[in-house]
Amino acid sequence: MYPKHLHYVWNYTDTDHAFWEEHLTDWLPESIIDAHVHITDPALRRVPMTGEMRRQYWVSEVLEPMTAETLEECYRTVFPGKRVTCVAFGSPDLDYDIDASNDYVQQECSKRDWRGLSLLLPQWDQEKIEKELARPGIVGLKPYYSMIGLNRDTRDQYIEASIFDFLPHHVLEVLDEHRAWVTLHVPKAGRLGHPDNLREIREIRRRYPHIVLVIAHLGRCYTEKHAREGILPLADDSGLFFDTSAVVNPDSHRIALEAVGTERLIYGTDNPVFFMRGRRQFTENSYVNRTNHDFFFNKVRESPEIEANYTLMMYEDIFAIKTAMQQLGITDMASRESIFCRNAERKMKK
């Protein structure tokens, strides 16, 4: 039966299926909402990807455009027997036609009863924001600091920007009025715990309390140190949500669970990125991705015996959540349903 092609260079293998059967199938709830996934028509890319562009950042090597049809087939493969839906958005990259990408997401989500977020260009006026939020199936916006301006030499020209540079106040006013969803990828090399991020997120929550504000990737808190610096200071805000996408460190998940509980965590994959096969190793402030594919970033390989046991990083992500919950003695199915389905379901109604 396996291997079965997933997307780009990744296949679903007997190793993956064995991992699913041993660790995940009985533990996960029957219904799953993937609240952080990218879908894109490859034809909407206006500038071809080059080898030089791929080598700027490891994500650029694995973020190949994934259509809605491909995602649908992948869900059937990686979540066998589960009911899966999603909150989807395009690739936040100005090398794509952003308006056409948003059209694609809206149309494909409407066909499948999925929900979508429109990519935000911070230059849009309030009338444009109103039109985006009025689209069937679109429940909010996806801002990103790279949408401030285009620089093909680096994706991080604007990483030190203020949140309000790419999620301006005139946009927030409309979002608040519509009680819309925002998935926020925080800027700064210091990640969520940077004092400016903490201050600005508190300001958003104070001035625009009706927005469903979801902090992506636990605020990019991939290490225990960053989780303590970023999540703990915001733990007392009962209206702030965090998505779990691309976090494979059980310590980060444990801190999030201890700080905010199961009612404010929202599951996401960050696919197509986390179809990558491998594992992640951590230092105090950073991480290293290990994979079995010959990517430019994958210079230090592990032994063939170790690589043979790699599974999908999206499975490692779920397993890290499971490990953290078990460490804390959270064993009830209702808590798992909250993280993997109910929390997103409550907030994405439209």
Number of strands: 13
Report low-confidence residues grouped into runs of 5 or more: none
The largest β sheet comes out as: 8 strands, parallel
The total count of helices amounts to 15
Strand order of the largest sheet: 3-4-5-6-7-8-9-10
SSE succession:
EEHEHHHEHEHEHHEHEHHEHEEEHEHH
Q: What's the overall average pLDDT, rounded?
A: 96
* Helix amount: 25-40%
Structural class: alpha/beta
Strand content: 15-25%
Overall 3D form: globular
Termini separation: 39 Å
Backbone CA Rg? 19 Å
Architecture overview:
- The protein has 350 residues and is of the alpha/beta class.
- The chain is 39% helix and 17% strand.
- It is built from 15 helices and 13 strands.
- The protein has helices at residues 14-24, 51-54, 58-62, 68-78, 98-112, 126-134, 163-166, 169-178, 195-207, 217-220, 224-230, 250-260, 304-307, 313-327, 333-347; strands at residues 4-7, 10-12, 31-38, 83-89, 115-119, 138-142, 181-184, 212-215, 241-243, 265-266, 277-282, 287-291, 311-312.
- It is globular.
- It starts with a strand and ends with a helix.
